[in-house]
Design brief:
Distance between the termini: 64 Å
Structural class: mainly alpha
Shape: globular
Oligomer: single chain
Number of domains: 2
CATH superfamily of the largest domain: MFS general substrate transporter like domains
Order of helices and strands: HHHHHHHHHHHHHHHHHHHHH
Number of strands: 0
Number of helices: 21
CATH class of the largest domain: Mainly Alpha
Largest sheet: none
CATH topology of the largest domain: Growth Hormone, Chain: A
């Protein structure tokens, strides 16, 4: 058997482990130093050493705050600034618009008509706006819509400040604003991918959604202060200036740094294609269904807080401002937390929707104002976490070529349900009391959590665990090109 031992004792076989051992020792000594102290690797003495060093090089560490990294993108930073301006001032202008109609006419019915004129175009043409967002460059669409917003509110501002405004002027401006919203919302949602790029998409979506939702909470508080201090006309003027500033910010973006989005050629059946895509994509479908349940009663808090101020706590406008501000504090906290999340899952959304409903039931039973305010802050946190998570899940799941149409459907359900909920919750508060109105607010999110949760569980033949895995983890089909993904979903 000597021949069997000869290979193990040959000089060649004994020298190779020594070389490997040296390389391993070098990696052992130098690797931890790089990882722990981030010191530069010593210069290699030979090409072999250089190759070994390259093979063991530690990748560059990612920024500890991914949100700050996203805001480091110049185009996205300009976009966020424009959204902060237009969302906050836009919500302030809506409040000023309703108050101006009421002061001019004394008719609550005309105030309701003003709101209707703003939302009817979205309900009738919302999906058409999605087709436009997919068919034309989204930055150009946004520049046009923001110009329309700015000019319409500027006209009302001039008329109000000069003392020549009439109710029909405001009604016409509300309808024009509603038409512009049809095309603005889906384009704005889909444009996030272009300004931030795929590397920062999740954080960018969270920031954009947080800014949008915060505008709806902070804007009315800003309007209250401006109306009482300088009047409705100057509130409209502020919104006009903000919209025109947004046009400038969009214009100065660097086109070469935008992530090009596919422009869909004009063809028949594009609306049906978008709806069919949602139907074949379970995560998007159930996200849209759930946001409809939540929005129908759960996120329209202005009416019920006004009723609490008048009926329960017996305070004035300052008390209403306090409640609104506390909800905004919670929303701001939720917005900051949402930017640190790495992703979103449909099961998380179901839990958050249930939490919104439970907190609203708890608020309805709150025995004192300090307890109510504490629950209100928690409600703001959870609501923003849900809304940003839902938006993130839809946008990171949808294919680029139908992004505009899918986001149009999502916004249509979200805003359409809120339009319905305002009248519904207001009627309950007026006839059954503020606490009953808060209970009604909690019914929608809780019912949605139950319905969608049961639907997710029933889709799996193997039980709830298999369903949760199916809807919360991306499968190979999710990462496949769009035709393969649609075939897998079918």
């Amino acid at each position: 058997m000597p021949s069997a031992r000869r290979p193990s004792t040959s000089p060649t076989r004994t020298r190779r482990p020594a070389t490997t051992g040296t390389s391993r020792l070098r990696r052992t000594l130098h690797g931890p130093r790089l990882a722990l102290h981030r010191r530069p690797r010593p210069v290699a003495d030979t090409p072999a050493d250089a190759a070994a060093a390259a093979s063991t090089a530690t990748p560059a560490p990612k920024p500890r705050n991914a949100t700050l990294a996203a805001l480091g993108v110049r185009n996205f930073r300009l976009y966020v600034f424009s959204q902060v301006l237009t969302n906050t001032s836009g919500w302030a202008a809506r409040v000023a618009q309703d108050w101006l109609v009421l002061s001019l006419t004394g008719s609550a019915a005309l105030v309701g008509l003003t709101v209707t004129l703003q939302f009817v175009p979205m309900l009738l043409l919302g999906l058409v706006g999605g087709v436009v967002a997919d068919r034309f460059p989204r930055r150009r669409v946004l520049m046009v819509t923001q110009s329309v917003f700015g000019l319409s509110t500027l006209a009302i501002a001039v008329l109000a400040i000069s003392g020549h405004v009439q109710a029909w002027h405001v009604l016409v401006a509300a309808f024009v604003s509603g038409l512009a919203t049809v095309f603005d919302n889906p384009a704005r949602q889909a444009f996030v991918h272009e300004v931030a790029g795929p590397e920062h998409l999740r954080q960018a979506i969270s920031v954009n959604s947080a800014v949008f939702q915060l505008g709806g909470l902070v804007g009315p508080a800003v309007a209250g202060g401006l109306i009482s201090a300088v009047g409705e006309g100057w509130t409209f003027l502020l919104n006009a200036v903000a919209c025109l500033a947004a046009v400038v910010l969009l214009a100065v973006m660097r086109t070469g740094e935008l992530t090009a989005a596919p422009v869909v050629a004009r063809a028949k059946g594009q609306l049906r294609e978008g709806l069919a895509y949602v139907r074949r994509s379970p995560r998007i479908l159930w996200s849209v269904v759930l946001v409809g349940f939540v929005a129908i009663t759960g996120v329209n808090m202005a009416t019920v807080l006004a009723a609490y101020t008048d009926q329960v706590f017996r305070t004035d406008a300052g008390g209403y401002a306090l409640l609104t501000s506390m909800l905004a504090v919670g929303a701001l906290t939720g917005a900051l937390l949402s930017t640190r999340r790495r992703g979103s899952r449909i099961t998380h959304l179901v839990l958050l929707a249930g939490a919104i409903g439970l907190l609203q039931l708890l608020a309805a039973a709150a025995p004192s104002r300090p307890v109510f305010i504490t629950v209100l802050i928690a409600m703001g946190v959870v609501t923003l976490l849900y809304l940003t998570g839902s938006n993130t899940l839809v946008q990171t799941t949808v294919a680029p070529h139908v992004r505009g149409r899918v986001m149009a459907l999502y916004v249509l359900v979200l805003l359409g349900a809120q339009a319905v909920s305002g009248t519904l919750v207001g009627w309950i508060c007026e006839h059954l009391g503020a606490r009953a109105g808060m209970v009604a607010c909690g019914v929608g999110p809780l019912l949605g959590a139950v319905v969608v949760g049961l639907a997710l569980a029933r889709r799996s033949d193997g039980g709830t665990r298999a369903t949760i895995h199916r809807f919360t983890h991306r499968s190979p089909a999710d990462e496949a090109p769009e035709p393969a993904r649609e075939a897998a979903a079918a």
